[in-house]
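Why do we care about 3D structure at all? Because function follows from shape, and shape follows, mostly, from sequence. That is the central idea of this module. The next example makes it concrete: a single protein chain, its amino acid sequence, and then its structure expressed as tokens.
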Amino acid sequence: MGFCCSGFGWGGMASWGGIGTAGSILGLLLMVALLVVLGLGIAWLLRQFGRQPAVADMQRDALDSARRRLAKGEITVAQFEEIRKRLRS
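And the structure:
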């Protein structure tokens, strides 16, 4: 018999150094753990480098906030115009 078929090669009951079925189960669990860690890493990268809000979106949000403050009476019309002028430039 060749090396692979004598029980000391890939697979068979002698996997993971001769610990049999427990070695096969351990190998499966390690593979699943590796895939989970890989998936979590990819998800983290996608969140880190995903779509960032455009500058125009941020300016629009700031202008909307200034409009709400003007409506509540927190700022004057002159202050609102100054904010709007700064955001447009």
